[in-house]
Amino acid sequence: MPRSLSPGECPLCGTEAKVTDYDEKFTRWVECATCGNFAINVEAEQAVTPESKPLLSAYTRRFFRRADPPILITSSSIGEFVRVLPRYTPPEKLDDLLIQLCRMSPSEFGKPTGFDLKKDYPLVIMSGPAEVHSYLAELRNPNRGYVTIHDPPIVTIEGWRRFEEIGQEGKRSNRAFVAMWFHTSTDEVYEKAIEPAIREAGYEPLRIDKHEHVNRIDDEIIAQVKRSRFMVADFTGQRHGVYFEAGMMQGLGRNVFWICPKKDLEQLHFDVRQFNFIDYESTKQAKDRLYYRIMALEGEGPSANPKETSTAGV
Ligand SMILES: [Zn+2]
């Protein structure tokens, strides 16, 4: 549908953006360098608060490139979007900012990062340029010396070293542990949904199917779960091993993406039913929903094409 855009103000971040007129459903389309592209209706514009605005910017910016249909902010979806975003601690935010600065740096060492404080703060779920500044000061702190004082900053060798170190720590690694029943009946959902959804989001799927480990606590599996950033757990076949691994990941405080064929939902064990399952009727549906949820909760992963990232929102 062709959109007729004209200069206006972004209803989320307040900067100059391109907006359409309201359509018959009182919805308008916004293209913002800070928040990405999204649609928002009048009710939602009235419902957003100063606290929810930066979180919605983070959601739309981190999510918009592949959103099809486009992200629509309504007064009822605000809560869900805000809820789905991870709440990072200050040390995690510091790491996240360094990761982003590195990922948006040119390949040649010693050149400034492409990260723009004024418009890229939603990528690291910060409230605005001021918050980025306070973390930048920490990165520059002589104890760390991860970036230079230039604006935009240059990542130092120490900074790149720290970036590598972070990647090796499970919580920030690019690995996604796949817990599922490895059986010919699940090959299709793995190959057409789980694996491509994880890869497109910028992570490396890790599946351990060399040996049957149902009902067995296996050292290798424990080690690999700990080294993984998040987990995709598919409950086809109701295997004990999948329940066990998902429980372990939850215990580590990391995200588990619970997925299950719609027809098997009632068979789920009582104590996992409370989780927000991605139920699916087709592999296409499973892939799309899983991809969007990974992008929303984890953001784009380290294996994604950095070029694409640096031009997002432009
Ligand atoms: Zn905006």
Q: What ligand species are in this complex?
A: zinc ion
Shape: globular
Give the CA-CA distance, first to last residue: 20 Å
Task: Please indicate the count of domains.
Answer: 3
- How large is the share of residues in beta strands? 5-15%
Q: What is the string of SSEs from the N terminus onward?
A: EEEEHHEHHHHHEHEHEHEEHH
User: What's the helix count?
Assistant: 12
State the secondary-structure class: alpha/beta
Q: In percent, how helical is the residue content?
A: 25-40%
What is the level 1 CATH name of the largest domain? Alpha Beta
Instruction: Return the CATH topology of the largest domain.
Output: Rossmann fold
**What's the CATH architecture name of the largest domain?**
3-Layer(aba) Sandwich
Strand order of the largest sheet: 1-2-3-4-5
The description of the largest β-sheet is:
5 strands, mixed
Query: Quick check: average pLDDT?
Result: 87
Output the radius of gyration.
Answer: 21 Å
Give unreliable regions as ranges.
Answer: 210-216, 306-314
Let me know the number of strands.
Answer: 10
